[in-house]
Amino acid sequence: MIVKHNPPGVAAPVGPYTHGIEIPPNARLLFVAGQLGIASDGTVPADARGQADLVWHNIARILEAGGMGLANIVQMTGYVADPAHAEAYRSARLAAMGDLRPASTLIFVSRLADPKYLIEIDAIAAKV
Length: 128
Description:
Blueprint: E1 3-5, E2 20-22, E3 28-36, H1 48-65, E4 73-80, H2 86-97, E5 103-108, E6 119-127
Parallel strand pairs: 4-5
Antiparallel strand pairs: 1-2, 3-6, 4-6
């Protein structure tokens, strides 16, 4: 069983995440490389929300290929190229993840691999 830790003596999470996730021995792990908002035909939406939705679509398909789903994500890191895109990132995450609360970090970066990319997310999923 995966155990979530938000212990007393530590401030409650300030967003939709859990401070710590404990994975039992012999759990199967799937590491998802940083995903960008690139459609399967190679197109990239110009807007942050469009890219963020595609990022979650891509992550979901990768997890599905590994016999997992978004509920199996135990840790994720979001990279946003401009604080102005934070709301697009957060609303797309909420639409995809709902009440799921993996351990997570959000980082604002000066840019991603190409200036047209606005949001990137990597993740680790576990299945018991």
